[in-house]
């Protein structure tokens, strides 16, 4: 109990000093807890949605993984419903319509629906009514009438009585909105277009006798699995029969990857924040132990054992961890609510009423906070326990005679780790295969980071001296004193700067990688893309025949290229058969994409019954130009002999190692209804007509907002915006670690000011003004921040250059170092140092001179 009373007394007597360390714990735990609450809530929302929209058993057409992309939904004859109803144990069976490849356009010409979730066209039948109800207006009663879900209508500013256009592969039609529907339970942002059942079959599937699936409800006392077995036996082959549980699992798998990316990315950044927080806590407790040397010595003198002193310090850390973790868990719930609101802004609706806090969340948050705090406090506690009573009473500090020797050992260890890390980075940069270099890169990142942290005190003495000479010279004696203060305790300066170094190293490396990716892609576009315009699709959309015709009929175009992919079964001369996706395009694609060949001419691949193969495929099967392979187009009946006209290189970003053939070859060997739709289109303007053709093409596709027209400049800008947006998100998440690092600078300066109270009083007594004193503290903070920035950005650039050399094996061959970004971040670090010093400098300036001099 004595140890706990000592811990409590010390904790509350230094509560001001503990606040900043506590904030670091709160932020770290909040990120962990918020991530878990947010992902659990999303999982629960999707699970309830899938449960509400699924029936006991679903019967659908047998899926073909390698089917041609015709854009048409797989269907069943409506007569299957009657066959299902005859199965024993079926309470009800209803045919349903489902089309997920459509676009709904409002009167302003904007596509409705969120960017992430799909737009679903379905029928307003018994199955839909189980999970939705009419909230406004009336249900659709025939062709030309539709109903929308309320959320989609509100986002698209569509009301009852408005007109919308529906663009689908079976055709384009205009309809009147007769009503708005609302889910009984949660709807995570899926846009719904609802039609009268017969009209839905014709408009969305292409015929009144077609359905997408049969939803089956089991009779009382019949289980899902038993009913599924009976239905499967009654229908025979050619059908996919799934239970509610299987459907829910499949749907969860579809969104699970998206949710896992969010979860693990955010937990990764939370881990970085925890690591940075550990630095702050180590510094805090090290300085507190140093300042309590006399107190600890007295405790030892009156009989306290090393273990008791150790437990006293760890007791403070435990109390700090418990309080900080508890607050962090609460803050994490608030963070999760904020993330849910952010998701709502992009169209993924997650109601706060669905907030899910599982038992594991507070357990995980508390565990993270306590483990991080106790681990960080262990070394200072160990040092405190090793203080001898006599050394403490002489106020010699906690560092014993072996401190210089331990510093030398630390420097040697840091040099060895850094050297090993540098060697690993060189090996990664020299690797010929990305897979081989990745292991060296991971090892190099870890070793150089740990090495920089370990060698930080040695670097602090050297680098801070150089920075002081450059940055602080203009400030005269005050600048020189600030530089000496920063060098006075290299271990403390190294640890403080190390926290900032971690975040800035990641910023620097990602900046180099992002800039290099954009520069490499731009270089590839300039060298290989000959097309003036690209018509692209989003998600799983395909270019409808009507839109494709609008592109072809645009005036001012010299040629238009169709581009799609066909599925083939290829049998090579070595007797092996494999399923391959082959690009089927117009012969002009050889001009639109100047693909590099290692043998033959690409134009020959577009001759009738010819194709090109990739370099690896050719090597694996011993193929050369002129050889013949046997092909069967999936969905076609006959085998076809195709001649290898060219072998393409894999050293490119665009279609690396792709196989090509003429779209006319595919049309000749496939039934008309199985010829795939375009996934993209390319066009070249007539000479001197580029600007006019661009405007004409954009105008031609205005009725089709799901397709985008881009010239090369647009395409480059889109790429830059996408990568820039991703990097901004990453920088925003890394800002958490940098905020914690700034708190470390504030904490170090605050404790340092307290530590130097008597010294500050003496300086004031011999003429140092308050303004000069505050400037000295601010300059000390600036030089520490710049030291951390120099280490972090230097380390990050080394990581980024190595990663780029590794990416060069995949075609990203241009190294681009964003000097502007690096410069702004470095200058920003000085500003961070100034901000971090505001409160400590203000407190130092207000210090009473006489009391400061009298401080023991």
Automatic annotation (TrEMBL):
Main location: membrane
Location(s) in or outside the cell: Cell membrane
Keywords: Cell membrane, Membrane, Transmembrane, Transmembrane helix
InterPro entries for this protein: ABC3_permease_C, MacB_PCD, Macrolide_Exporter_MacB
Top-level taxon in the UniProt lineage: Bacteria
Topology within the bilayer: Multi-pass membrane protein
Span of domain MacB-like periplasmic core: 21-232, 493-698
TM ranges: 264-290, 317-340, 360-381, 412-431, 443-476, 497-519, 729-754, 779-801, 821-842
Positions of the ABC3 transporter permease C-terminal domain: 269-389, 733-848
Matches recorded under PANTHER family: ABC TRANSPORTER PERMEASE YTRF, MEMBRANE COMPONENT OF TRANSPORTER-RELATED
Family: Belongs to the ABC-4 integral membrane protein family.
Name of the protein in its database record: FtsX-like permease family protein
């Amino acid at each position: 109990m004595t140890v706990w009373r000592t811990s409590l007394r010390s904790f509350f007597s230094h509560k001001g000093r503990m606040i900043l360390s506590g904030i670091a714990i709160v932020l770290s735990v909040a990120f962990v807890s918020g991530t878990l609450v947010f992902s659990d809530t999303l999982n629960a929302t999707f699970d309830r949605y899938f449960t509400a929209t699924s029936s006991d058993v679903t019967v659908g057409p047998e899926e073909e993984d390698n089917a041609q992309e015709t854009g048409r939904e797989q269907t069943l004859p409506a007569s299957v419903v009657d066959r299902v109803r005859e199965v024993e144990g079926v309470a009800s069976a209803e045919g349903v319509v489902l089309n997920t490849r459509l676009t709904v356009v409002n009167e302003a010409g904007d596509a409705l629906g969120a960017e992430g979730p799909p737009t679903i066209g379905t029928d307003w039948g018994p199955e839909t009514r189980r999970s939705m109800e009419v909230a406004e207006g009336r249900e659709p009663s025939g062709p030309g009438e539709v109903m929308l879900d309320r959320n989609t209508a509100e986002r698209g500013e569509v009301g009852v009585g408005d007109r919308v256009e529906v663009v689908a592969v079976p055709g384009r039609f205009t309809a009147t909105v007769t009503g708005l529907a609302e889910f009984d339970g949660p709807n995570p942002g899926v846009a719904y277009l609802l039609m009268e059942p017969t009209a839905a079959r014709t408009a969305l599937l292409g015929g009144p006798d077609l359905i997408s699936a049969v939803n089956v409800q089991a009779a009382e006392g019949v289980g899902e699995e038993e009913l599924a077995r009976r239905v499967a036996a009654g229908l025979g082959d050619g059908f996919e029969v799934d239970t509610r549980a299987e459907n829910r699992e499949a749907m969860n798998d579809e969104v699970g990857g998206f949710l896992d990316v969010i979860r693990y990315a955010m937990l990764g950044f939370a881990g970085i924040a925890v690591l940075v927080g550990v630095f702050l806590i180590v510094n805090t407790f090290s300085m507190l132990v140093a300042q309590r040397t006399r107190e600890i010595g007295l405790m030892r003198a009156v009989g306290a054992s090393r273990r008791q002193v150790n437990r006293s310090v760890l007791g403070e850390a435990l109390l700090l961890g418990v309080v900080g973790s508890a607050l962090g868990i609460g803050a994490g719930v608030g963070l999760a609510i904020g993330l849910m609101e952010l998701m709502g802004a992009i169209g993924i609706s997650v109601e706060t009423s669905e907030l899910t806090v599982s038992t594991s969340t507070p357990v995980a948050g508390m565990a993270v906070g306590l483990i991080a705090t106790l681990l960080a406090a262990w070394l200072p506690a160990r040092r405190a326990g090793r203080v001898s009573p006599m050394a403490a009473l002489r106020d010699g500090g906690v560092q014993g005679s072996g401190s210089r020797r331990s510093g030398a050992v630390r420097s040697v260890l840091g040099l060895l780790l850094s050297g090993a890390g540098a060697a690993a980075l060189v090996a990664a940069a020299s690797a010929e295969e990305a897979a081989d270099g990745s292991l060296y890169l991971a090892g190099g990142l870890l070793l150089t980071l740990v090495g920089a942290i370990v060698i930080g005190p040695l670097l602090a003495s050297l680098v801070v001296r150089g920075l002081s000479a450059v940055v602080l010279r203009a400030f005269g004696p005050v600048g020189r004193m600030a530089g000496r203060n920063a060098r006075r305790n290299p271990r403390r300066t190294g640890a403080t700067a190390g926290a900032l170094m971690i975040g800035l190293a990641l910023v620097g490396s990602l900046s180099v990688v992002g800039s290099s990716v954009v520069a490499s892609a731009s270089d590839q576009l300039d060298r290989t893309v000959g097309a003036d315009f690209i018509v692209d699709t989003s998600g799983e959309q395909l270019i409808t025949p009507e839109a494709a015709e609008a592109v072809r009929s645009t005036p001012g175009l010299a040629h238009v290229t169709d581009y799609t992919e066909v599925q083939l079964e290829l049998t090579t001369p070595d007797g092996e058969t494999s399923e391959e996706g082959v690009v089927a395009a117009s012969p002009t694609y050889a001009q639109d994409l100047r693909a590099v060949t290692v043998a033959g001419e690409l134009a020959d691949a577009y001759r009738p019954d010819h194709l090109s193969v990739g370099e690896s495929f050719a090597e694996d099967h011993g193929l050369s130009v002129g050889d013949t392979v046997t092909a069967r187009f999936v969905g076609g009946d006959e085998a076809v002999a195709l001649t290898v006209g060219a072998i393409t290189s894999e050293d490119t970003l665009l279609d690396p190692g792709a196989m090509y053939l003429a779209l006319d070859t595919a049309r000749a060997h496939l039934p008309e209804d199985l010829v795939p739709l375009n996934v993209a289109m390319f066009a070249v303007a007539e000479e001197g007509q580029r600007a006019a053709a661009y405007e004409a093409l954009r105008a031609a596709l205005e009725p089709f907002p799901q397709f985008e027209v881009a010239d090369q400049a647009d395409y480059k800008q889109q790429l830059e915006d996408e990568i820039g947006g991703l990097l901004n998100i990453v920088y925003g998440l890394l800002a958490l670690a940098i905020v914690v690092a700034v708190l470390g600078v504030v904490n170090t300066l605050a404790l340092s000011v307290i530590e130097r109270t008597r010294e500050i009083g003496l300086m004031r007594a011999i003429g140092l003004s308050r303004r000069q004193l505050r400037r000295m503290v601010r300059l000390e903070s600036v030089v520490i921040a710049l030291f951390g920035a120099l280490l972090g950005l230097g380390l990050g650039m080394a990581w980024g250059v190595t990663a780029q050399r590794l990416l060069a094996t995949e075609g990203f061959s241009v190294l681009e170092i964003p000097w502007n970004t690096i410069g702004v971040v470095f200058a920003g670090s000085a500003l961070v140092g100034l901000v971090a010093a505001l409160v400590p400098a203000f407190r130092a300036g207000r210090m009473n001179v006489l009391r400061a001099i009298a401080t023991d």
